[in-house]
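May I ask for a sample protein chain and its fold as tokens?
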Amino acid sequence: ITSGVVQGSVLGPLLFIIYINSICRCFITGNPYLYADDLKVVYKTDKNDVAHCIENMQDELNKLGKWCSKWCLEFNTEKCGWMCVGDPKLEVQLVLSNHKLPKLNTVTDLGIQYSHNINFSEHISAKLSKSRRLLGFILRNFHQNESRLSLYKICVRPTLEYCSFLFSDLRTSDKIRVESVQRYLTRQMIKGNSKIDYKTRCHMLGLEPLWKRRLRTNLILFYKLLHDMTYTSINIAYRTYTRDYYLRNKISQVKIENYKTKARANFYLIRYGQIWNKLPAAVRMADNLPVFCKLLNTALRDISFLVDEATYSDTLEVIGPLNI
């Protein structure tokens, strides 16, 4: 194509992928992750091999700089940087094309913001700020409840539920903050009786608490992962097992791997694997996704099987069980 490719064309993305695809060959030690024009490289090392890892990082950054010069493609150095997960005190001097790369406290991947300790509180704060602005605009400019409810479902709720499987690691305070957006909406739409609780307000408006929607969505994702209905780099289908001898509700459970840290305990596959094992056997053994969704909706009408009686309280309907 001698005349170039117009932006927004059908061929544009394909030709760009062909153009940039060889960039991953610059990395041997690191694991590159390329999405369109966004490149991230992950290096794994232990405390005794940090110096050698840094040398490899700089060598591969030099190769990356040569690749950029060869193909006349410059990186936006203002958007480049490095972050260490696990040791926030580590200081490294890394250079790309004569530009020193700054140390980053937070990184954004496809709309998800996280810190060096894999904490999503800043991501939640950003999403809450955006959601509250949108909700405020809706409440100020629309006065019919039908319009408010429709716009909330279209514009606000998807923002709060984006990549909801990450919310299994949320702190209790963050869960309360997320739920507070919908709680505020229900209070504004049902005025005149402040004694109506959140659960009743949601029922009157045809809404579900956000934590219950997350629970359903994440369990549906777990079902898809178990049955190879969606892509993942982690194979979890082999985790399913049934005991050689029959025990009540022990059919089609998943094996929970051992963990030593709280962060690992909050990992999606571990946390929702434990919830999966508590589901009724009929739900876990569903033959297809529509049947599973139908049985799951019935099972989630009463969530007492997910929590211990000692932890059951009135606040459960506000933030949900702590293990969700």
